[in-house]
């Protein structure tokens, strides 16, 4: 059950709900569907495999030490999914509904949405709507990252990188345990298919190498995502604004962080339910050389 944005009336019939669900699924792109399967299916199964099988080589299963090692990982992993939930639920535009019908100074008209769009607002061809302070389209949630949900995205990828880094380390230790290699044999890590084809390693050892490679790939991917966010936030930009060469909102490092992640930004990494009020309402933004002005609406 939900409220229709335009009429304010409740949509409660099963037929309306089914129609809305079909509309959402029609908008899903192949890359969105694949990413959602990975996040909701592959990653949880991989995590369970790691803490039950891989960790058993280092700690007795269900022992006090095992719980001590697994608990922080489980907490960070839970934070990933709680933040993902908030990314989708809050959305980039928060509770905003309709944009103003009057075109204000600095606004531009979006011919795709047929709405007046502020300077920092940009249209997403996947979501088919304008997004406040749009950063990018996140396939893992099939939603754009923008003004109101960027903090949850940053917290999610940070927690994911913590989990992936620790798991990758244990996988690497397991590889060294199962494949006693000399320095001359490190090419196994680069070309495991060749190594197993010529029987330098067994199928089991090859699977251990693939396990490490997969976890390390997640580390590299999350490192890239975090680096991109840090780079743009430091410069007071979104990814879109970086590509367009817009520098009007660079207010200094600490102020830029507050603009993107809120006043209590250090706490966002602990839980998505800790409040971190944003400096802007999503419509008015301060610029380098002016007082707060109307610069954005999506």
UniProtKB/TrEMBL annotation:
The record's subcellular locations are: Membrane
Question: What EC number(s) does the entry state?
Answer: 2.3.1.225
Q: Name one Pfam family in it.
A: DHHC
Q: How does it sit in the membrane?
A: Multi-pass membrane protein
> What terms describe the molecular function in GO for this protein?
protein-cysteine S-palmitoyltransferase activity
Gene Ontology cellular-component terms listed: membrane
Could you tell me what reaction this enzyme catalyses?
Answer: L-cysteinyl-[protein] + hexadecanoyl-CoA = S-hexadecanoyl-L-cysteinyl-[protein] + CoA
Where does the record place the Palmitoyltransferase DHHC domain? 106-243
Q: What is known of its domains?
A: The DHHC domain is required for palmitoyltransferase activity.
Q: Which family does it belong to?
A: Belongs to the DHHC palmitoyltransferase family.
User: This protein is called what?
Assistant: Palmitoyltransferase
Organism, scientific name: Panagrellus redivivus
């Amino acid at each position: 059950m939900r409220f229709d944005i335009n009429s304010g009336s409740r949509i409660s019939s099963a037929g309306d709900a089914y129609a809305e669900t079909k509309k959402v699924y029609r908008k899903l792109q192949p890359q969105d569907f694949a990413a959602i399967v990975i996040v909701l299916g592959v990653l949880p199964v991989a995590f369970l495999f790691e803490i039950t099988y891989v960790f058993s080589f280092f700690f007795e299963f269900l022992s006090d030490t095992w719980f001590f090692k697994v608990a922080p990982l489980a907490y960070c992993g839970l934070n990933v999914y709680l933040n993902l939930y908030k990314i989708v639920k809050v959305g980039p535009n928060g509770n905003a509904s309709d944009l103003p019908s009057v075109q204000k100074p600095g606004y531009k008209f979006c011919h795709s949405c047929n709405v007046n769009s502020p300077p920092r607002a940009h249209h997403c061809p996947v979501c088919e709507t304008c997004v406040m302070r749009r950063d990018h389209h996140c396939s893992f949630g099939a939603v754009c990252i923008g003004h109101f949900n960027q903090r949850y995205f940053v917290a999610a990828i940070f927690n994911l990188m913590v989990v992936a880094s620790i798991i990758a380390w244990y996988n690497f230790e397991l590889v060294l345990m199962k494949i006693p290699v000399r320095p001359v044999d490190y090419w196994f890590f680069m070309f495991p298919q060749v190594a197993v084809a010529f029987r330098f390693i067994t199928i089991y050892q090859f699977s251990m190498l693939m396990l490490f490679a997969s976890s390390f790939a997640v580390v590299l991917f999350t490192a890239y995502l975090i680096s991109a966010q840090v780079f743009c936030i430091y410069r007071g930009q979104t990814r879109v604004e970086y590509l367009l060469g817009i520098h009007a909102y660079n207010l200094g490092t600490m102020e830029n962080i507050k603009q993107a992640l809120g006043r209590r930004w250090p706490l966002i990494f602990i839980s998505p339910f800790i409040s971190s009020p944003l400096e802007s309402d999503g419509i008015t933004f301060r610029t380098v050389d002016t007082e707060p002005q109307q610069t954005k609406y999506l």
